Amino acid sequence: EAPLLEVKNLKKYFSINKGLLGRKKKFVKAVDDVSFTIKKGETLGLVGESGCGKSTTGRMLMRLLDPTEGQIYFEGKEISNLNDNQIRSLRKDFQMVFQDPYASLNPRMKVREIVSEPMVIHGIPKEERMERVEKLLTVVGLSAYHADRYPHEFSGGQRQRIGIARALAVNPKLIIADEPVSALDVSIQSQILNLLKDLQEEFELTYLFIAHDLSVVEHISDRVGVMYLGKIVELADKQSLYQNPKHPYTKALLSAVPIPNPRLKRERIILKGDIPSPSNPPSGCTFHTRCPLATEECRNKIPQVKEINPGHYVSCHLF
Ligand code: SF4
Ligand code: MG
């Protein structure tokens, strides 16, 4: 069966000067040759530090940003070359849940209007909208009587539930959740994650779940991709990635995740230095400035993505 979504060699380069007066045009390679698939009904976690290109990838999938190069296929059909009109009809199938439930809900709109908005855009009649809003609020763990309140009357977790109700309003096929729990208290995070997981089962949803922390996506993901400076450095099913990580960066990220069983002690790998500026990335393997295993080859040669086990992709000279 064809995947619901397929991304091939996706790139997004932003120019940071205009190349005038004989200056060399400079680019930030925000997303640099990223490929992955998402099957129907599955969750792909996409993890990396801020600035690694994960949100830019999500925004290209939503077609809020045009790719510089590469293709996006949805249900086998290329969507990276559509015009604005064609994109509009596609929007129904793609919805987004945002990081900040405080900023992403219009404070002057009642919950009813917020949740209805995508239905208005996609021409669902008023009567049906009103009925659906109340159902959706119940589905996300709120109640019909919340419909006539304003966002400021809700807690962060409740606001994120409203954001999720809005995302579900037009029966999307793919939900891109961009750090949907990062702004919430830890005690609330697992409630929202469980809600997303329940809704996935109930409505056969497919998720791209973006996070900066491997522990957040572990429970919800079927497969996980790890990004560093615009590239996916490792991608595997959850089991392989968490139990048998290969890339030194994945290992370092995982070593920072506390594990419930203290006898399975993992050695903490502390990475030296900060993440380099994407406008001036290191040569060769862009991780070499922080990698504890870097060699001369790493400084000079860009590693290619290799499939080292079925479905387990790594980009590192050690493999
Ligand atoms: Fe480290 Fe070299 Fe592998 Fe890059 S290619 S992750 S620098 S060992
Ligand atoms: Mg982001």
TrEMBL record:
The keyword Transport applies. This is Peptide/nickel transport system ATP-binding protein/oligopeptide transport system ATP-binding protein. SUPFAM superfamilies: P-loop containing nucleoside triphosphate hydrolases. PANTHER family: TRANSPORT ATP-BINDING PROTEIN. Pfam families: ABC_tran, oligo_HPY. Belongs to the ABC transporter superfamily. It comes from the Bacteria. Keywords: ATP-binding, Nucleotide-binding, Transport. The keyword Magnesium does not apply. Residues 5-254 form the ABC transporter domain. One of its GO terms (molecular function) is ATP binding. GO terms for biological process: peptide transport; transmembrane transport. The lineage of its organism: Bacteria, Bacillati, Bacillota, Bacilli, Bacillales. PROSITE patterns: ABC_TRANSPORTER_1 (PS00211), ABC_TRANSPORTER_2 (PS50893).
